[in-house]
Write a structure and sequence with these properties.
It contains seven helices and 15 strands. By secondary structure, it is α/β, with parallel strands linked by helices. The chain has two domains: 193 residues, Rossmann fold; 93 residues, Elongation Factor Tu (Ef-tu), domain 3. It has an eight-stranded mixed β-sheet, with helices on both faces. Strands 9, 10, 11, 12, 13, 14 and 15 form a seven-stranded mixed β-sheet that branches. Strand 12 and strand 13 form a beta hairpin. The radius of gyration is 19 Å and the shape is globular.
Length: 298
């Protein structure tokens, strides 16, 4: 691992390939990733930005990995890449317990970017870096994505276990960058407010309300399940071809005993992927569940 300046690493990365950015909360990953993407766009590169931070997302709504193609934008910044060109549904706003879904969704969108012949793919990851499960998640994600370079951002040595694993198990360059002195750490409340605003903006009217049948879900609902238990759950809308059209929230009508799905997506979905977080269309995260809690012991 080498330590170089931000400007030097930007110049080395915009030549092309896939670069994965690693780091904890508010270490400047997204700012750096946007800088790489904008610099490459100005040089005439076909740039794709994959945002795998499912909590404080920049591309698409929280709960999803988002992909944005940048070459036709006037500039690349947080505003211009906010609307995703493709989504990978995870169904949670925390990576813990969702490593498989997060890693496969990220790999799927990187594959889409490669199929679209992007010259440069920037992958911005979550701030989940502490502990053995975080290390396993990053390893599995890199194993599936197969990047050409990894850049890690750290204040001290908090990222060393992950960066050492990357250097040991992958034949790719690993660069360590110190967090810029001006990088400000946001309070938990600030991050929660940002996530809420992102969800609320996604569910702006007009919203569609679809009555849904028990047979459209994945995982398949057991016949005896009480549909009221699904009230408030985030769901992913699948187009029947393995692509996520967007997200919705389930709404159980106690008076009519009817389950509906509320979404900003106007077209009907072929199937719904169950998430594990309860949300409102106003953007609040009101609870988290597990598959065991929903379906009972297997």
């Amino acid at each position: 691992m080498t330590v170089v300046s931000h400007a030097e690493i930007v110049e080395s990365l915009i030549t092309g390939g896939c670069v994965v950015l690693l780091g904890g909360i508010d270490t400047g990953k997204t700012t750096f990733g946007l800088s790489i993407a904008e610099t490459a766009r100005k040089r005439g590169r076909r740039v794709a930005y994959v945002d795998a931070d499912i909590d404080n997302s920049t591309v698409g709504p929280p709960g999803c990995v988002g992909l944005k193609f940048c070459q036709d934008l006037e500039r690349v910044d947080a505003q211009t890449i906010a609307a995703a060109d493709a989504l990978g549904f995870v169904g949670s706003v925390t990576p813990q317990g969702h490593a498989f879904a997060l890693a496969t969704a990220t790999a799927h969108l990187v594959a889409l970017a490669r199929e679209s012949e992007a010259d440069l793919i920037v992958v911005d990851t979550s701030a989940y870096i502490s502990g053995v499960y975080a290390e396993v998640l990053k390893y599995r994600k890199l194993q599936l994505v197969r990047p050409d370079a990894v850049v890690g951002f750290q204040r001290g040595e908090e990222l060393e276990p992950i960066l050492s694993t990357v250097a040991r198990f992958f034949s790719i360059p690993v660069t360590a960058l110190k967090v810029a002195p001006g990088a400000r750490e946001r309070f938990v409340e600030e991050r929660a407010s940002y996530r809420e605003a992102r969800l609320r903006s996604y569910f702006l009217p007009p919203l569609s309300r679809w009555r849904v049948k028990p047979t459209v879900f994945m995982p398949t609902l057991p016949p005896e399940i009480d549909p009221a238990r699904l009230d408030g759950l985030m769901v992913g809308l699948d187009d029947g071809k393995g692509s996520c059209m967007g997200i919705g929230v389930l709404e159980f009508d106690q008076e009519e005993m009817v389950l509906r799905m509320v979404s900003s997506v106007a077209e009907p979905a072929r199937g719904l992927l169950l998430g594990t977080v309860r949300i409102t269309t106003e953007g609040q995260v009101i609870g988290r569940v597990t598959v065991r809690e929903l379906f009972g012991p297997e």
